[in-house]
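Minutes, project check-in
Item: structure for the 525-residue chain
Input as provided by the requester:
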Amino acid sequence: MLALAIVCGIFIGATLFDNGKQSNIVSNYMRFAEILTYIQKDYVDTVDIDELVDHAIVKMLEKLDPHTAYIPKKDIDVARSQLEGDFEGIGIEFNIIKDTIFVIAPISGGPSESVGLMAGDKIVTVDGENVAGKGISNMDVFGMLRGKKGTKVEVSVVRKGSKNPLDFTIVRDKIPTYSVDATYMIDDKTGYIKISRFSASTYKEFKESMKELQSKGMEQLVLDLRDNPGGYMDRATKMVDDFLPPNKLIVYTQGKDARYNSRIESNTKGSFEEGAVVVLINEGSASASEIVSGALQDHDRALIVGRRSFGKGLVQMPIPLNDGAELRLTISRYYTPSGRSIQKPYSEDEDYASDLSKRFKHGEFFHKDSIRFDDSLKYTTAAGRTVYGGGGIMPDIFVPRDTSMYTNYLAELFNKNIIREYTLDYFNSNKKKLKAMEFEDYLRDFVVTDEMLQDLVKMGKKVDIKYKEKEFKRSKEFMRTNVKAYIARSVWGNRGFYPVINKYDEVFQTAIKNMDKARKIEAAN
C-alpha cells in the first residue's frame, strides 16, 4: 500500500506539472509493475525477478540503436575495466551474436593472440562445456575466461575454412595496458606508429612515440589505425590536436537535447603541425579512429589510405543507476568538421552485426566501384576536396584486399595454427642465437630458407594437411614473410613483427608510394 501511495503521488505530480508526458511514463511503469507483481505472486514456477527485469531492460534497449546498453551491477566492474587493462584473463575482444561468442580480435600482446586465436573465431566450448546456442551472457563469458594469471583454460573454436573445431590451451595472464603496438622509423625521415585502441594510456604512449621518432629525424608520419575499434574520445581528440594549429574544429556532437551538443576544437600548439601524414584505416577502424581520420581528412591535414571504416558514430553517456547498475544511453551523434555523420545507417529490420559480411559479399573490400555514394551526402574539405557522408570514413586512396597469395592450402596452415606453431618451435630451438642478434641485422640478413618451409610443410602433413604443390608455390613468398615476422615477434614482440610484415603489406606500401600526395595536401592546406 505504501508503494502504491508513492506511485499514485508520482502519477498525480506528473499529471499536474509535466503536461502529461511524465504521466505516460508512470502509467507504463505501473503496467510493468502490475505484471511483475502477478508473476511474483501467481506464476506456476519460481522466478528470479531480478534476472527477469534485467532481461526486459536489455530487450527494450534493443529497440533503440545498436550501441545503447544496460550493464547490471554484477557486470559493472568488468565493463569499466575494458579500456583500463587492469584485469587478468585470456585477452580477447568479443561479441555475442545469436547466442555465439565471436572473437572480434585477440588483444595485441595477450595470451590469446600468442596461441593463435583469430578474429572471426566462434568459441564453442570452454573447459569442455558447450557455450554455443544456450543464451550465454557477457558476464558468463567473463566468468569462464577471466581468472588468475598462470591458470589455464581449454577453448575450442570453429573457424571458417576448417572442417573440425580447433582446440587451444590458453594460459591466463595480465592483459597488456599498452595500445601503441609499434613505433619505428621506416627510413631516414618517415616514422610509423601503430595504435590498436584508444585506452586510458593511449595519448601518453602516442606522445612518447612521437618524441622518440622526432629525435630520430622524423619529417613525415604513417599513422596506422587499421582494426582499431576506438575507445576514449578525449584521447583521440588530443591526438588530432597535435596535428592541427589552435582553434580548428575536431569533432562536434548533436542530440535531441541541446545539453548534449558540443564542439571540440584544437587549443594547443601541436607537436607535429607541419609534415606529411598518411592515416591507414579499414573496415575494422571504428569510433575514435574515425574521429581522428575524419578530422585530419576534413582539414586536409592527412592523406587517408585503405578501405571504408566501420561507421560507429553514436555517443553513449554512462548513467549510474540506483542499484549500482549502469545505463549507457545514446544521447547524440558524432560529426566530422565538414558535417559528415560518422554513423552508418541502422534499423530494426537490418542485421547490424552482419554489415561487414554484407560488404564482403557485395565486393566492397575488393572493388572501389562497388561503393555507391548519395550526392545528397557530398561534403567538401577545407581545401575543397570532395568527401562523402553516409557512414564511416571513405579513404582518399582505396586499396583492395590482396588475395593473390591466398590459397586453400595456406588457409589450412593458418587455421590449424601450423605457421605459428612452427615459428614458436624454431624460436625455442634457436633462442640463444636469435636473442644475440640486433633487430636491424635480423631484418636485413635473416632469410627463411626453402628448407625451413619444407619443415613447415612436414608439420602440416602430421595434422593431415595435404600438400598441394601448385597452391604452395602461389603462397610461398607470403608464407616466407609470415614465418620471418612471427619469429621476430617471439624475439622482439610487436616492434619486431610490424617492420617485417609491413614490407609486404599492400596498404602500407601504397601509403609510402603516395607520401608525395600527402605532402601536396599539406602544402595546399
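Outcome recorded: The mean pLDDT is 88.
No further action items on this chain.
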